């Protein structure tokens, strides 16, 4: 089957017609290099998130495995979901129709002396648990500090360390007591 063609006719001026020409359409592919020479592209350049076990092992290696395990147990029971990143285990709660990261543990930044580092979004935790923000702040470890974030401006975030199992249990019993009110 012949490719479709167009024959154009016309003139440059009223007196001088120009030559007819034949235009044929064809579909062609031009390659700068052969397709077989192109290496397969990876599906993603990012490294995959760490597993729960890998994060647990990091906490163990940093000397804070017991505190980490207990916090994961408590927070898993408190929130709807949990997930991991390259450096954190994040606990997610459904607020309205949205899934929101509310509490995160950072085993890479933890140690035997400091404890397990955490970050919590107090405004989200308050809404999720239906507990006043000032009451939640009181049950955080005593050296917790408010942190500012460029990409989450306006959120009330705190960070600190759970230094020992006693601080973990104080937080657990504090949340349980406030939920009963």
What would you note in describing this structure?
The protein is an alpha+beta fold and 181 residues long. The protein has a single domain, classed as Aspartate Aminotransferase, domain 1, CATH 3.90.1150. Helix content is 30%, strand content 27%. The protein has 5 helices and 8 strands; from the N terminus they run ββααββββααββα. A hairpin with a 3-residue loop joins strand 5 and strand 6. Helix 1 runs antiparallel to helix 2. It is globular and about 70 Å long. About 8% of the residues have low confidence.
- The termini sit apart by 83 Å
- Order of H and E elements: EEHHEEEEHHEEH
Structural class: alpha+beta
**Total helical elements:** 5
CATH architecture: Alpha-Beta Complex
The amount of beta strand, in percent, is 25-35%
Q: Order of strands side by side in the largest beta sheet? A: 3-4-5-6-8-7
Outline the secondary-structure elements.
Blueprint: E1 5-8, E2 21-24, H1 52-61, H2 65-78, E3 81-84, E4 89-95, E5 98-111, E6 115-121, H3 122-129, H4 133-139, E7 145-147, E8 157-162, H5 165-180
Antiparallel strand pairs: 1-2, 3-4, 4-5, 5-6, 6-8, 7-8
Helix pairs in contact: 1-2
């Amino acid at each position: 089957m012949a490719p479709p063609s167009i024959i154009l006719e016309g003139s440059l001026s009223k007196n001088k017609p120009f030559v007819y020409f034949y235009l044929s359409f064809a579909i062609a592919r031009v390659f700068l290099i052969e397709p077989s020479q192109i290496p397969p592209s990876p599906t993603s350049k990012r490294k995959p998130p760490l597993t729960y076990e890998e994060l647990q092992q990091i906490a163990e290696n940093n000397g804070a495995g017991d505190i980490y395990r207990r916090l994961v147990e408590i927070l898993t029971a408190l929130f709807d979901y949990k997930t991991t990143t390259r450096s954190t285990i994040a606990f997610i709660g459904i607020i309205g129709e949205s899934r929101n990261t509310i509490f995160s543990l950072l085993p890479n930044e933890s140690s035997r002396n400091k404890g397990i580092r955490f970050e919590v979004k107090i405004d989200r935790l308050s809404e999720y648990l239906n507990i006043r923000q000032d009451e939640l702040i009181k049950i955080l470890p005593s050296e917790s500090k408010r942190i500012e974030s460029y990409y989450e401006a306006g959120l009330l975030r705190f960070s600190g360390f759970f230094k020992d199992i006693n601080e973990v249990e104080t937080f657990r019993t504090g949340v349980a007591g406030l939920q009963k009110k």
